[in-house]
């Protein structure tokens, strides 16, 4: 039985490597409709992908490069950009090339259609899935949820603490976990912040009297919002010369669950270019129906309810 994972996850698995050992093992994978992964080494002038299949080369014809290539809903860049990256595929047959060598005929489209039928179509809001970041835009991150099928994670769904650009949280190729937020006409949107913990779970990492690291996210007339974790920010007293994006060391004056407030004093700030780290998750189940961010004692209810439309 196939396990549907983001492209790149199967490359070094024993099952995938075993299939590349010989023409016979590739033929077995063809018969069993086993989804394999290989590295695309060339995209020729006709936009066919040549794939390293270990014992032989494989060919993904342009029209087999992805769902939507035939009707034009997917552009050729979707194929061109796979060069030197893993691609998933089904082996559909074998043929001799001009030199008389046997090559494997492959279809990434068929692998994606199988993934859509047996996996993606079964997903409902609240399901938690593995994903791999494929590219970043100002409005959100795109993530592969299986066999190169990409979904959007909007920027305001990435974390409770607001950011200016998804690159502050993710980098291309990063593996994350996400929640199915909504499904509209087959299009899946994701959310992420519900996995990063409640206000109380994050606040429990800190204590009044500590001086800790933070990131200044915004500066207002009444104070500066400083991110302590992706799902927790506190309000600090204004200090001259501070600006959004700066790293900060902050003193924790108080933590007030009923008002969901963390009061801070900025000790020092500095500029620092950093690469985002893999997220730390508080929730590790396969599905959630409801996420309540706010403490029970809070005057305000902040929640996400996952419902199928």
From TrEMBL:
GO terms for molecular function: mRNA binding; structural constituent of ribosome. PROSITE patterns: S1. GO terms for cellular component: ribonucleoprotein complex; ribosome. Residues 126-193, 209-240 form the S1 motif domain. Belongs to the bacterial ribosomal protein bS1 family. Keywords: Ribonucleoprotein, Ribosomal protein. GO terms for biological process: translation. InterPro entries: NA-bd_OB-fold, Ribos_protein_bS1-like, S1_domain. PANTHER family: 30S RIBOSOMAL PROTEIN S1, SMALL RIBOSOMAL SUBUNIT PROTEIN BS1C. The keyword Repeat does not apply. This is RNA-binding protein.
């Amino acid at each position: 039985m196939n396990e549907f994972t983001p492209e790149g996850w199967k490359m070094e698995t024993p099952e995938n490597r075993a299939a590349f050992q010989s023409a016979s093992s590739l033929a077995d994978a063809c018969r069993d409709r086993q989804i394999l992964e290989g590295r695309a080494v060339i995209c020729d002038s006709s936009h066919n992908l040549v794939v390293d299949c270990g014992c032989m080369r494989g060919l993904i014809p342009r029209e087999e490069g992805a769902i939507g290539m035939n009707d034009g809903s997917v552009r050729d860049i979707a194929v061109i950009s796979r060069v030197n990256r893993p691609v998933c595929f089904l082996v559909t047959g074998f043929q001799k090339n001009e030199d008389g060598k046997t090559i494997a005929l492959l279809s990434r489209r068929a692998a994606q259609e199988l993934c859509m039928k047996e996996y993606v179509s079964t997903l409902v809001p609240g399901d938690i899935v593995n994903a791999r970041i494929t590219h970043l835009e100002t409005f959100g991150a795109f993530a592969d949820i299986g066999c190169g099928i990409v979904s959007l994670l909007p920027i305001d769904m990435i974390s409770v603490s607001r950011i200016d650009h998804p690159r502050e949280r993710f980098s291309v190729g990063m593996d994350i976990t996400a929640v199915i937020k909504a499904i509209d006409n087959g299009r899946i949107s994701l959310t992420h912040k519900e996995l990063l913990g409640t206000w109380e779970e994050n606040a429990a990492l800190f204590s009044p009297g500590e001086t800790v690291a933070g990131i200044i996210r915004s500066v207002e007339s009444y104070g500066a919002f400083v991110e302590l974790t992706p799902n927790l920010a506190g309000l600090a007293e204004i200090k001259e010369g501070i600006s959004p994006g700066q790293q900060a060391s902050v003193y924790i004056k108080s933590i007030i669950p009923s008002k969901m407030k963390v009061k801070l004093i900025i000790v020092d700030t500095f500029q620092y270019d950093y690469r985002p780290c893999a997220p730390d998750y508080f929730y590790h189940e396969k599905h959630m129906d409801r996420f309540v961010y706010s403490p029970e004692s809070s005057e305000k209810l902040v929640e996400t309810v996952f419902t199928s439309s």
